[in-house]
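hey all, quick one before standup. I had two proteins in the batch that finished overnight and I want to keep them in one place so we stop losing track of which output belongs to which input. First protein below, input sequence then C-alpha cells straight from the run.
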Amino acid sequence: MIKVSASIVTYNNINYIEKAVGTLLDSVKDENIDFRLYVFDNGSTDGTVELLNEKFGGDSRFKFTSTGANLGFGKAHNKILDEFDAFKADYHCVVNPDVVIEDDIISKMVNYCEENPSVVQLSPRICFPDGRDQILGKKNPHIWYLAASRLRGDEVSKLLSSYAMLDADYTKPFEISNATGCFMFFRGDAFRKNSGFDDRYFMYFEDCDITRSMKKLGKVLFFPDAIVYHVWARDSKRNTKLKIIHIQSMLKYYLKWRTI
C-alpha cells in the first residue's frame, strides 16, 4: 500500500474550496493508494470552515485544522510536517483551493515516480477551466522573464515563450527548474528532507524556491499526462496589498539565491 498525503491551505475561498476538495477526494480510485487530505484554514470568515465540516467531516480521508491566523501559504502548508511522522506518506501533494481534478492524476504520478526513483518532484499540465493551457514559468524566474509575464498581452512574447519553455515537447515529461505552486507533487522523503517550504515567504515565490531546492535532491519534471484545471485569479495584479507582498517575496528570493 502506497501512502499519499495532500494539503490545501484556504483563506476565504468559499467559492472554490468545495469543488477542489470534492474532486480531489473523488479522483483517487486506486485501491493500492492510502490517501489523506489535510486542509489548513488560515482564519477564514466567509463560512469556509462551516462548509468544509458539513460537506466532508464524515470522510475518514479528510482532516481539517484551523491555524487560528493567516500564516501565509508556505508556513500553513508546513503544518503537514507534523502529520508525516504519524502517516508516513510516500508522496505528498500541495494543492490550491481553486483547482479541479477530473481524473486519477494521483495514481498517474505515483506510478511514474515508482518507475523513476531519481524523480523527486512532478508538475502537472495546468489548464484554465475551459481547457486552454496556462502559460506558466518553467525556468528560474529571472527579472526579464517576470517583466514579460507581468506585461503580457494577447500575444505571447519571445521572452514569455522562453520562460514557459513553449518550444519543448509537451507530449512527454521533461526537466524544469520552476514549478507552479497551484499543484505540486513531491516524493515524501524529499519534502521532509527539505523541511517543506521556506516560510520566510508569506506568499509568492515559495514555489520557485522549493523547486530550486528540490533540484539539489533529484529530478524535477513537467508531467503532461496529469492535468489540473486552475481558476488562476492573478489577484496580485489588481490588489495593491498583494502586489507589495509579491515584490517583497521577489526580493527575498533574489537575495537568497544571489541572482536576478
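OK second protein, same deal, sequence then C-alpha cells:
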Amino acid sequence: MLKLKGSLKISGDKSISHRALILAALSVGKTKISNLLESDDVLRTVKILRDLGIIIKKKDPYWIVYGNGTCGFFEPNTALDCGNSGTTARLMIGAVSSNPINCTFIGDSSLQKRSMSRVTDYLKTIGAEVSLTKNDYLPLMITGSENLLPKEHKIKTPSAQIKSALLLSGLNIHGITTVVETKPTRDHTERLLKYLDVKFKLNKLKGGRTKIELNGPYEINAKDIKVASDPSSAAFFIVGALITPNSEIELKNIMLNPSRIAFIDVLKKMGAKITVKKTKKICGEDIGTVKVKYSRLKGVKINSYLSPLIIDEYPILAIAATQAKGKTIMKGLAELRHKESDRIKSIVSNLKKLNFDVISEEDNIIIQNKDVKMMNKKTIKTYNDHRIAMSFLILSIIYDNKILVDNEDCISISYPKFHTHLNKLLKKN
C-alpha cells in the first residue's frame, strides 16, 4: 500500500500564466515572466501571440515578452490555433477585437464543441464583426476595430473567461467599458491589471453583484511577473493525501486567491485536516503553504452558488466524495457540461463503471459512500479531459493502481509534470 508523503512546489497557475502572457503582450516594453506553466494550453497562447507579431523568447528559467501595446497586434498570416484551450480562445478573441485586424480562430475537435458565442455576442454589440460556425463554434472569423463602442455589459452566465475577454477588449476602447457580474468569479485579470498600475474602478453592488469600469484606451508599462503555483493542480494531491491512509504532505508557493481555494473550505466541511498559512504576496496574489493529513471524510451538500468558484475542482471533489461517509450532493453544475468534456457525464459514467453509487439528476451529482472492492484492473474513459484523467489516477492509488485511464497524454494540457510530482510524493508504507 502506498501513501503520499513529503513536500512539493506545484507548477505555475494556468489561469495566471495565460493572463500574464496576454497582458505582457499588451504592455509597452519588456516583461520577464517566472514560473510560467509550460503546458500545452499555455504554449498555445504563446504561439498565437507570436503569430500576432509579439516577440516571445524563452531564457531559462524565464520567459521574455516584448509588448507592443494595447493596439499592437499585427494581422496574422495564418489561422490562430487554440488547440484544446478554451481560455486561449476566449481571452484572445477579446484581446484582438479592439485591434484593426482580421483573425481566424481554430481549435481541436473538443474545442470545436465549446460555445464561443458566450463571448462574441457581447463583442458584436460593440461593433466587432464575427462569423461563427453554426452561430456558436470554432472555426470563427473576427474583424476587430479601434472604434469599438464603450458600453455596459451585464454578464448572464458567471464566467471569468467572459469577463476577462471583455476587459481585455476594453483596454483599447475609447471611453468607459463596464462589466457587471451577477455572481463573483475568479479575479486574476483584475489583480494583474492592478499590479500593472492600470487604473479602473471596482464596485461591490447589492446581491453579490460586481461592477468593473475601464476608461480606455490605456498605455500599460511593462513590469516583471511572477506566477504563483496552481491551486487547482494542488487539489489532486490534497485529495490524494486526504483519502490515502498515513499520508501527510506540504505544498509550497500555492496561490491563495479566495476565488480559487473555495474547494479547500468544502473539504474542511467534509472533515479534512488541512492548514493554510499565507507567506507573502506576489503580483497581487497571496501565496502560502498548504499542509494536509489523511482524514476520515463525511458527505456534505455543495450548494450551487459555489459552482463558479470550484468549477475546475468538481472532478477531484467527486473522488473525495466516494471515500466520504454518507451522501455528498453537488448542486448547480450546468457549467460542467461546457468544459473539456461534459464533466457531469464523465464523472458519473466512470464512477458507475467502477461500481460506485452515483447518480445525476438534471445538473446535480449525488454520490453515496459505498465499500467498493477492485479485484481486477479497469480502464476509465477520460473523454480526452485532463482533469478527469488526473482525478481517477488519484483514486487509483488507494486501489493498488488497478484503475487505468485510456489517455494519459491529455494531462499535458494543464499539468505536464503531474506524474513527476506524484511520484515524488508517493512512498511505501
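Flagging for whoever picks this up: The domain at 229-428 is CATH 3.65.10.10 (UDP-n-acetylglucosamine1-carboxyvinyl-transferase; Chain). The two ends are 6 Å apart (CA to CA).
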